[in-house]
């Protein structure tokens, strides 16, 4: 709907120009085409992405225009990995979170 506000949270693996799902992936081209279609067809008023994935910044480099009202916060820029945190044993596994998500969720409690 034209007045909808959409929040998208993604936490998984990524690489340059893609987000990786368990059985599929989303490319920057697919995301860009979808966002442009949604904007042109008034499917939202504002959209916010929080992306926890390595190289997640590459999904938004040079694709968003100011009039789209799409905002993105990513764990890493397009050339950097993101990092796990709260790793609890000698092998540092399992890790119970990632630095980006842990930081904004812990800070939002204050």
From TrEMBL:
For this chain, one GO molecular function annotation is: cysteine-type endopeptidase activity
Q: One of this protein's GO BP terms?
A: vacuolar protein processing
Write one Pfam family the protein is assigned to: Peptidase_C13
Which Gene3D superfamilies does this one have? 3.40.50.1460
Q: Choose one Gene Ontology CC annotation of this protein and give it.
A: vacuole
InterPro entries (alphabetical): Peptidase_C13 (IPR001096)
Which sequence ranges are marked TM in the entry? none
Q: Which family does it belong to?
A: Belongs to the peptidase C13 family.
Q: What is this protein called?
A: Peptidase C13 family protein
Q: Which organism is it from?
A: Oesophagostomum dentatum
